[in-house]
Queue: 3 jobs
Job 1
Amino acid sequence: MTSRLNETHPAGAAPGGDEPYPQAGRERMIMPQPIALLGNGATNPEKELLARLDARHVFMMGDNPALPRMPKAPTLLDFFRLRFSDIAFRHLLQSAKLALDAGHGEKVVMACLLHDISNGALLRTDHGYWGAQLVGPYVDEEVAWAIRYHQALRYFADESVGFKYPDAYNAFFGPDYQPPEYIRKAYEEARNHRWYMTSRLITIYDVYSFQDGWHIDPEEFTDIIGRNFRQPKEGLGFDGSPVAHMWRTMIWPNNFL
Ligand SMILES: [Fe+2]
Ligand SMILES: [Fe+2]
């Protein structure tokens, strides 16, 4: 990941400029997100951190120096470069590139480019639904719909287009795993919908193998994004849209409140 960030933003060229970080001179404590502390044996540090509060200890609010600084008006590709995990970054670009090289239209390419955006830097659980919501105000309705339903379609084969139940899912969940009822229902809804194939194509280009030395420059998608993603001039997170808070959560994932 480091090499990717360095490539895009060489030292001294941080997009957010050289402004000082907030809460200067104090230790900025980070409280993990509650959802990351549930059920995994992690100790919830909230009481201990609250007990440490004094003139020198505060909870972090605003830019975290441990993260690459985001520009004031972040674009979609800024999130790709500065916030997404390395796996999500590569996975989404590869998926979009495969769709593009196969000759699909821009809606399909966009759906592939954005399909796992939620697991990129926000939440894995129900990622199709979160991802569809994140991009909903900025893309064609069909693109958001396809992203929402790809989560369910991944569990169900479609021999007519050569899609089999993923080997990766046998490894991830065990060969006897059965998806829950709401996923089955979502699959049925999608199967009977006129946009079914848009979502199905996401599952076809949803490939988790990367070649050594593989590299796709995200700039390759700048024109397609320009035509298919209504990038707000205020930046993602600051346009007052119903999902702006979700983008801000990725900009400042360590804010206490
Ligand atoms: Fe996915
Ligand atoms: Fe995926």
Note: The beta strands are 27-29, 57-59.
Job 2
Amino acid sequence: MELILIQSQEHETLPLAELKAVLATEKIATEIECVNTGLVLLKSLDIEKFEEIYKILVKRLAYTHEIHEIILNTSLNNLEDDFNNIKWNDYISGTYAVRVKRFNNPEIDTLAIERRLGHLIKSQNSNFKVNLENPNSFIRVIVSKKRIFIAIEGFKLNKKHFYNIKPHKRPFFYPGSMSPKLARCMVNLAHVKSGQLLLDPFCGTGGILIEGGLIGAKLIGSDINWKMKNGTAINLDYCDLQDYEVYHKDVRELKLLKKADAVVTDPPYGISTSTGGEESSAIFQQFLESISENMVEDAYLCIAHPHYLDIDSILNILKFELLERHRIKMHKSLTRIISVIKKSDI
Ligand SMILES: C[S@@+](CC[C@H](N)C(=O)[O-])C[C@H]1O[C@@H](n2cnc3c(N)ncnc32)[C@H](O)[C@@H]1O
């Protein structure tokens, strides 16, 4: 079976990297085909596990807008015939909507195609009713340069989540918190599984921990500032997350009783975040030196850092292996780097 994903184009590398990380974490066997930027096929999915896989992707992915099950793929010339040959009784219950989306495609009249295809469905069964706002069955027709995909939405991504949970909408707010989308993506890049222990030793207002908790991780947060530690607890309670511990601790003195399966964190730098009066490069170095002791072997570490900090020389000395790196341009003089690192035993 096949799924088609419409991904965000707000970043060049993160959406696909996030998808690949989730597929690996959840051990989903598939063949990935990138049709266009922002359009990805997952082929040869296990039919027995199809629904489970679909639900996992919908629950976890931040930089993906839509996920649909492919009914068939065709060409512009054969679209009407192939569409009409589909037994829509097998797919539609009650109300429906047909929506067309173009990817790098020449002139096609999307509205006219939507009307025509909608009409073909209705002519198969006059009991089906169009409902464009809230249909029972959502048919997505994706037109790329060479192929047209006819697909149906089985499970909807909760697009409102990343908007509703923005930092200023939580009960405890402090400037410098990262976007929930990026936080979720970093959790995914760190290969965190449900039930595993996720640590953020610079937890601030708890944005990363919230996203980890929502995919089922157990959480440990700590911060040098007791107001932040308390604020994290307030925000985690607000999100109804219970499986957490928070500590008022300098990262350099952190000694966990149980080692973390993954660390995802956003250490301080720049103007708006507190470094407790210390040079941020010194904190990064000391943090990397001490965090290793709090991680299980093979644990992933996903960190955000500014472009001007050279962490590679520290990684080389410590037992860390750099796996991937993504660049996010914040403004003229600051690029935020997301590094995915693994604790290695070599
Ligand atoms: C960039 S903020 C983290 C923001 C967080 N991701 C959020 O969503 O709110 C960095 C945090 O590191 C904390 N911090 C600074 N130095 C620290 C240290 N040595 N040990 C632990 N926490 C520290 C600051 O108090 C601040 O809350």
Note: The chain has two domains: 3-152, 164-343.
Job 3
Amino acid sequence: MTEDISSPEDDRPMKPAMWRGLRRRCPNCGEGGLMASYLKVRDRCESCGEALYHHRADDGPAYLTILVVGHLMAPLLHVAFVQFRPDPLVMAGLFTVGCVALSLYLLPRLKGLVVAIQWARRMHGFGGTA
Ligand SMILES: [Zn+2]
């Protein structure tokens, strides 16, 4: 049995906000874009006007990216070496490109996730009336 941690009067449900953040959308409306550039969060949502400058994602998204990429690539490295024994230069090249590409893909999405969680839980000024 799963327990829903959000109460009925919760006006900022966690799950939809997290999905919107992962899609780099405003955690409030899901329409406006969350990012002004690759990693810069907009001050306000261009669709609903929700203030987004309160976020304090800091090193969280980078930590999560390293966590995910490391836990995916390390076993893959082992399997690739044991099963296929590719030329070391080929293997190093493939895994370098794979790690960089996956990190660049995940970093803005995980930043959106962290900002959305902070928004949903009213952290760092997100709960104010500003
Ligand atoms: Zn919005």
Note: The helical segments are 14-22, 60-84, 88-120.
